[in-house]
Design brief:
The two termini are about 30 Å apart. The longest helix has 25 residues. The protein has one domain. With about 260 residues, the protein is an all-alpha fold.
């Protein structure tokens, strides 16, 4: 029962963070699944990505309703991400033989996310740009979007974690997309990647369903709340605070 209650609470926190900042929430769920529930790295990765799918699905739907997502403009990112996720999901069982490398790889990605969040929190005003008449449309060339999608499909397939820490800065800095549009589009793109990865992880037997269910319930509610908070709450202080937390978690996983 404590594990179920903890899964709901951690899922709720992960969902709020995901809906607010455009990340999957694995930064909260992976440490909980590894160190509190005691799951192995492969089981933690598989269980996490199922919950992350719920985070991204709920968050992206709310951002779409808020006018932050243009499906047509992100289709190249989605298509490339699906292919990359499927390919690297097949490699997951091979990588899972070396459990310590899953922890190290996850910790390395978390360190990148922490750096991104701290820098973005400090430079928040520089990243925000005024919206145009078609604010939800994400600019950028077709090939740039294909490249971003392919690169970000690796993480959910191989490590079971989200790509928001990469997609949001890529959309915002490389494609010069307003930050709230970048967050909404990141969630929408990753929801498809997470679905593909979840199906593979379920078939591979890497999902703890008794824990995944409560976690999904928490993430669904949390992501909806986080997306609403995103609309009117300055997130710079939250980004710096959680960035410091992510740095701690990344060191814990790598060491």
């Amino acid at each position: 029962m404590p594990d179920v209650f903890g899964a709901i609470i951690s899922g709720l926190v992960a969902g709020v963070l995901g809906g607010l900042l455009g990340i999957g929430g694995g930064i909260i769920l992976i440490p909980f699944l590894r160190y509190f529930v005691g799951l192995s790295p492969p089981a933690a990765a598989g269980t996490c990505v199922v919950a992350v799918f719920c985070t991204t699905l709920s968050g992206s739907y709310r951002h779409y309703r808020l006018g932050h997502v243009s499906i047509r403009s992100i289709l190249p990112v989605i298509c490339a991400g699906v292919v990359a996720t499927a390919i690297f999901s097949l490699a997951f069982l091979w990588v899972a033989q070396w459990e310590q490398w899953l922890d190290t790889g996850t910790g390395f990605v978390f360190s990148l996310i922490s750096l991104r969040m701290i820098l973005e929190g400090i430079c928040e005003r520089r990243l925000q740009r005024p919206s145009g008449s078609n604010a939800a449309y994400m600019p950028g060339s077709l090939w740039h979007k294909f490249a971003i999608g392919a690169a970000c499909g690796v993480l959910p397939g191989l490590l079971g974690i989200g790509t928001g820490g990469i997609l949001v800065p890529a959309f915002s800095l490389l494609l010069r997309t307003p930050i709230k549009i970048a967050i909404g589009c990141s969630l929408a793109c990753f929801s498809v990647n997470a679905l593909v990865s979840s199906v593979f992880k379920l078939c591979q037997g890497s999902v703890n369903l008794p824990i995944a269910g409560p976690a999904c319930l928490g993430t669904l509610v949390g992501a909806y709340l986080g997306a609403n908070l995103n609309r009117g709450t300055p997130s710079s202080a939250l980004k710096i605070m959680f960035g410091a937390l992510f740095a701690y978690e990344s060191l814990k996983l790598m060491l």
